[in-house]
Amino acid sequence: MSKTLKCVLAGIGLIIAGGLIFVITMTALNWDFYKLDSTKYEAQTFNAIPDSVTQVEIDLDSFPLKITSGDELILNYFEASNATVTVKQEGSVLVVKEDADFNIMTNGMFNFGRGRYAYSLTVPEGIRIRYTGTNGDITLSGVTTDSLYVKSTNGDIDIRGCNIDSAELHVTNGDISIINGTMGSVVVNSTNMDLDVNGVTADSLKAAGTNADISIENSVIYEISLDSVNADYEVERVQVNELTVKGTNLDAKLIIRGIKSEYTITTHGRGLPAAQTGTTDKFVKITGTNSDVKLQFVAGF
């Protein structure tokens, strides 16, 4: 190793060590790190004309978004000095777009003040929602809609107490929670994702991806289909008529609320539960490679 390279590595090590000491010391003193953010934020509000909007399309680069149910469509948002925000109504569609500029040469190194701020949207029943986001979470609470489309990178999706006919969720490096709601069809595509479903009634849930940890509990879902590479599934106390489980490097714990003799069980692979022919059209299909799968049937939740 050359002398120059040694000096460079030593310098990098000193910078990292200095940064760690600064963070630890300031944290111990309860220092407000948001003071380092030089970005200026200005609150704004958009009020839609009643009954004039049927769909909302939102594209955010950084801010989190919270959506709740209300009698009127109201958007509370922030304009940041290092971003351009456009809010306009095109016919019956409300279009919201944020283009953030995180160039450290023009806007400084510290832009994490957005953690203090969030866009908030109230929507009447039936408004279709399309959202694309980067580095920001999206939360929906008590929303009723025919259609929800979400594409998120480095952000979590949290859906609670909602009534949604059709949901399509795409996430990279983020978690998805669906808690206490009624759903029609739910389709999830993911990379590096945790999916948590609890207390949900749905017609169908189909989840596919890579590096997926999926937990489905205390729910009634007619059809469930799970397909992932590097898969860890927990399906516990779930009433389901059609369950299809596929995975490579598959680790699964399946506890179904039902009578075992009613289900036809089909398996492909080693280390899987025994196959059987059931007395109804209910079924469990399991296909796995490098698998550790446990299947159990119980009565009640």
Quick recap of the structure?
By secondary structure, the chain is mainly beta.
Distance between the termini: 64 Å
For the biggest sheet, the summary is: 17 strands, mixed
The run of helices and strands is: HEEEEEEHEEEEEEEEEEE
Radius of gyration: 24 Å
| Count of DSSP H/I helices | 2
**Beta-strand percent range:** over 45%
Helix/sheet category: mainly beta
Gross morphology is elongated
Question: Which bin fits the share of residues in helices?
Answer: under 10%
Number of strand elements: 17
Poorly predicted runs of 5 or more residues: 31-35, 105-109
Relevant terms:
301 residues; elongated; mainly beta; 10% helix; 60% strand; 2 helices
Describe this structure in words.
It is a single chain. The chain has 301 residues and is mainly beta. Helix content is 10%, strand content 60%. The chain contains two helices and 17 strands. It has helices at 3-28, 104-107, and strands at 41-47, 55-60, 65-69, 74-80, 83-90, 93-100, 119-123, 128-134, 138-141, 144-153, 157-160, 163-217, 220-238, 242-257, 263-268, 282-289, 292-298. The chain has a 17-stranded mixed sheet that branches. Mean pLDDT is 87; it is low at 31-35 and 105-109.
